[in-house]
Amino acid sequence: MGKIGNNLYFCRDCNCEIKIKKCTAVVSMYDAEGCVTKRFKVCYNA
């Protein structure tokens, strides 16, 4: 995991970007060319 900004992280293993909000995280998965292939929301309790 690496940090891009205040609430934005990236994963080197699976080429995904994670944006943290209050109780949700939006995960965007990218392909080799840098296009978004899948985007989904994950709810969690902090």
What does this structure look like?
The protein is mainly β and 46 residues long. The chain has one domain. It contains no helices and five strands. It has strands at residues 2-3, 8-11, 16-20, 24-30, 36-43. It has a five-stranded antiparallel sheet with strand order 1-2-3-4-5, with no helix packed on it. A hairpin with a 4-residue loop joins strand 1 (2-3) and strand 2.
Question: What's the short story on this structure?
Answer:
With 46 residues, the chain is mainly β.
Count of extended strands = 5
Our estimate of the beta-strand percent is: over 45%
**How many separate domains make up the residues?**
1
The class by helix and strand makeup works out as: mainly beta
What count of helical segments does DSSP give? 0
> Which range best describes the helical content: under 10%, 10-25%, 25-40%, 40-55%, 55-70% or over 70%?
under 10%
Shape: globular
Please trace the helix and strand order, writing H or E for each element.
EEEEE
Quote the average pLDDT.
Answer: 89
- First-last Cα distance: 19 Å
**What strand order characterises the main sheet?**
1-2-3-4-5
